[in-house]
Structures are given as C-alpha cells and as structure tokens.
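Q: Could you fold this chain for me?
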Amino acid sequence: MAIAGFQLRGLTLVGRGVPNAEVRFSEGLNVVSGPSDTGKTFIVQCIDYMLGGKDLPKPIPESERYESIRLSLSFSETGDEVVLDRSIRGGNFKLIDAGKAARTLSAKHSADDKDSVSQYLLGLSGLTGKKVRKNKQGATREVSFRDLARLILVDEETVISETSPMLTGQHITATAESAVFRLLLTGIDDGSLISSEDPKVAKGRQAGKIEMLDLLLDQTNGRMAEMQLAGDVQAWQDHLTQVETLYEAAQKELAIEQQNAALLEGKRRAELNGLRQLESRSGVLRELQRRFALLEQQYLSDLRRLESIAEAGSRLGQMNEERCPVCGAMAEHQAHEHQKAEAAPNDVAQSCLAEAAKIRALISDLHLTRADNDKEIVWLENQCELAKERVRAVAAQLTELLKPRVEVALFRLRESQATRDTYRRAVELNARANELQGLMIELRGQVSEKGLKLESARVRAHEAEVFSKEVESLLRAWHFPGLDRVTFSEDDQDIVISGRTRASHGKGVRAIAHAAFNLALLNFCLKFQMPHPGFVLIDSPLVVYREPDTDESGFSHDVKDAFYRSIAREFQVAQVIIFENDDPPLDMAKNANLIRFTGANNGRYGFIPVPIKADES
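A: Sure. Below is the predicted structure, expressed as structure tokens.
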C-alpha cells in the first residue's frame, strides 16, 4: 500500500569540462556497495545536503571541478519527477518541474516562508503545518523537514551511536524530537496544546511581585508617618466620626447663611432694577426736552419766515404794475397768454399771518409740555436718589452683617473638611497597608507557581507497542540471535531487545538495531498510512559486523543475507537505500537495484568518473 511521500530517483553532479557523476535509484531496495574511497559517504552527504542540510559535502579531490548538485525526486502517488538543483558551495535551491517555470526555494526553514525546501518536502510528506511541542511547558513550533532527517537518513557514525535513533543527544531538543516521533506514530500533532509558564519565569515573576509590594508598603507607611497623627487607627476612626459631625454642622450653618444672603441679594437686585427703570425714564424725558428745544427753534424760524413773506406781500400790493414781473415788458406790450392765475400779494400776506398764528399756538403748547417734563424729571431724580439709598442700605446689610457670618461659617467648613480629609486619608492608607501586607503574606506562603503540569513529551511504551512489534518482526526476519521480545524504553526512548537496551550492546548490534528502528518506522507508517517521507537511507549498517565485538561472538553470520532478503521482500512499494562496503548476495540483482563500485579499472570505479590509468608495465 503506497503512502504519501516521495522517493529519490537520482543524484547528479554537474560541472564544466567534466562528465556528469550520477547514481540512479529505484523503488524498493537499493544497495550501493564497494570499498572505501569510492564516494559512498560523499553520496550520503550530498543527499543530506540536498534535503536541506546546512553542512556542505566534505570536498574530495574528484569533486573539485563540479559546480552543482541535482537530486531527482519522484512522487509516491503519481510517479511524477521533479529536480532540486543547488550549488555545491551553498545557497538556495532551484525547483525544476517539467512544463512549469523554475521556482526558487530558500534553504532555511521558516513557518512564514512557504517557498522553502523544507516546506516543499513537508508538503510531499503530508506534514505541512504540523506542530510539535518544544519544551516541558508545552510551547509549540512548526515541524521542519530536518526534524525528520534523522529518522530517514542515517550516516555511518550515527548508525552505531548509543543515542536513541529518534534523538540527537542534545537535551534542549529532546522534547521536540520525541514529539516528532510520536507524530509519525499517531498522525496527531501538538497544535492543540496550550503552553504553561516556565517555573523559573513564574518564580522570578513572584519574587518581582513581592519586591513591588514591599516597596509600596514602605511608601504607604512613610506617608502615614509624615501625617504625624497621634493614637492608633481606632482613634483615627473616632476622630473621623467627630470631625464628620462638625463638617455636617458647618455645612448646615453655611447653607442657612447663604440662604439669608440670597434673600438680601434678591432684594438688592429688585431695588437695582427699579433704579434702572427710573434712570431710564429720566433719560428718555431729558432726550425729549432736547428735541423739544430743537422743535421750538424750528417753529421760531418758520414764524420769522412767514412774517417776512406777509410783509413782502403787503408791500407788493401797494406798488403799481408798470412792467411785466416775468419778462419786463411794458404794460402796453404785455401778452397775457403766458400768465398763470396767482393769488394777490395781500391774500398771500393774510395767509402767512394766519399760518403764523397757528405756529404761535403750537409754540405755546410746546412750552406747556416742556414744563410738565421738567417737573417729571425733577420727580424722577428724587425717586432715583431714594432708590440708591435703599440699594446702599441692602448692600450695607450684606457687607457689614451677613458677610462676616458667611465667612465664619465657610472657615469652619473648610477647617473641618481639612481635618476630615486628613483622618480619612490616614484610615485609607492604613487599610491599604493592611491589604499590601496580606498580599505579601499570601505570596510568601505560596509554593513557586508551576502552572498546569503537562504530561511528559516522552513517547510512552504503550504508544510504541505496535512499532516495537514491527522492530521485532524485522529482527526475527534477519535471524537476530537469541531474540526473545522487543519492547520500548520510556527512559531511553529506544528499543529494548530481549530485555537489554540497544545502547548496552556492541557497535555491530547497535548498528543493526538502529537500522531496524528506522525501517520499522517506515513499515509502520506504510501499513497504517501515517505521514512519512517514504524512504530510508542507511550508511554502513553491517560493516561493523565484519569484526564482531567481543560480546557479539554469538551473532549469526547469516544475518547479512537475511537482512537484504527481508528488506527486498518487505519494502517493495517503499524505498530503502543501503550503503555498504561488502556486496549483497549475487542473486539479489533481480529483487533489488544493486550499484557496485569496484575502486579498480574493472567495472564502475566509483561515484565520480575518473580517468582510467594506462598499464604502466
């Protein structure tokens, strides 16, 4: 049954003026064998480098003229191939997909950068966006493809390590490494975890609270001391009660005096309003008198003009008409058509005299009106003086009698208020000091806050039970000597073979058990359709067996053959790549992809083509 993931199809070195160095892989078992110094370890380093590793492949003389590395990948579900291209000297990746524009993938993993090689490979492995916890408090981070690298790519030094195959041996990363292994076993990540506070941080925060409370308490006590109040807090409470009574009485007294003052102030405003009305009426009459004087002057002017007209009319009536008053013509030459009907001069004089008599009558009436106004003005002036006296009398009452009483009442109120505020502040400060003291006692009595204790991140034995059976099945198929039962150690986070931990064995057993661990995980994910990259690469799992450790004298020599045959049979739909010095059984060629380096002129010399030296004999 296929799982989501990918497989390696080929690794190619490209350079100028040199032939490409290439090795091709297929589905199922792949074995690259040959003596030392033929490039096997260099291939492993290149593959690790092309899967996002930060370490450059260690340079060898044969690789000096090569410039870039290309790793061909095949999707497990579709079989489509893509190529990752990267300079052998570092830098980012170029993703080449047939029929599509090339993409640049950054070499460094970032949760926010979706165009990184880590995110791309996680997507192929079905692990995009998965989170794992990274510490005991439950803080989480996104999975990086490098978290999976140790479980799918094992070099010749790691394979014999005493450290668990799932761990790097670094204490700071152990929590996340166990969480990654659990993720592959269960398919469930730690994204739902809510982290708790670090006990050290909580303890420091608690100490900071106590220090701050102590500072606030000292400040509060200092303020109470500055007030210099006698007695204890009970005496302060009694004084406060008394002062509040005095304060209420002063408030009432001041309210009464203010009410009396308001009555007098109302009376004063009423008198002022009456005074303003009298002054306004007096002003209006004075303005009328001024205008009446102007009118009288106008009457006299009109009277003099009428008298002049009347006298002129009388004089004209006494004169003989000799010449035309219009054109000056003599009487005998006058033409009367242009004359208009006009009154006689005597008639005009009489009319003017009659009009003058009317004006004299109006002047007489005006004199009477002005006389009446003068009388009213005098009366109004007397009334204004009386009103002013009344206003002054009310103002004197406000200033001389009521104002001192109001000031005394206000002084008593302010004095009682100041005393009340002092004792009230003292009582409040004492209550605050007691509250701060209580908080300090409570904090000092508490155990250092640890937050909610989360379950350990270590993989439990029951969680790895089915996985352990997969390891046992592989070891049994490899004819592992003295095999009884395989279990899982929660303390070591490693397998226990027949009651003995893997780390307690010699290097040969540790290497084979390490291979069993990684291959069993692949087989487990294959059977239960859990996310996994889809391949495992192991460097030198059997080489140490060539010279067994002293405690491995009973280690059967047919393990090597059984090892290869079992893997070829069990992993036909996945991919396993083994690098070994010794060749596998010759009859494995039909069931596996065998790549043999000879290190000599016969056959393929090694990974990188080298010129065949001529026979110097």
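A (continued): Residues 14 and 20 are 5 Å apart (CA to CA).
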